[in-house]
Amino acid sequence: PDFDEVVLLYDREMDPDYQLLARVLSARGVSVRRVPIGRVPIDGAIRSARHGDWRGLEASTLIDAAAAEHGTDVLRLGMRLYFIAALGPGQSQSFREEQLRQSLRRAARLLNADRPAQAPDPTGQLARHRGDHAYVDPYRLTTSLLAKYRPAPASDLLAAVFL
Description:
Blueprint lengths: L5 E6 L3 H13 L4 E6 L21 H9 L4 H15 L10 H16 L9 H6 L10 H8 L9 H8 L1
Parallel strand pairs: 1-2
Helix pairs in contact: 3-4, 3-6
């Protein structure tokens, strides 16, 4: 009752379980949204962790390697640029280390770019990415605010959303 909406992020392979969870929560009067999260293919294939093809590509390993070269803000923004904007919501692109490095460099440029300190209407900028729900779609927001052809977002909006 303390929240307007509950958003369930889940692996697509667990869809039936999350459908059931959403029905149970909805029966209790909770407004629920289910958002499937795709796995990132490695070398064009999505395999179970049991196959071990992900070794060296765990989130902790990628973050530790990037943190050795970049500060916290660049790391946060760069990872979001790559895993949300570059890879997108689907499972069509395989992990590419060079593309992750490019996203980190782009994050550093964005954070060092001249931009206004405050967004004129941050609530309005976020609201247009909501649709008929309370949560903001991260893919739509990231690709809109951080598109290459757009000026860097205001510092307050960038910090509130991505850092």
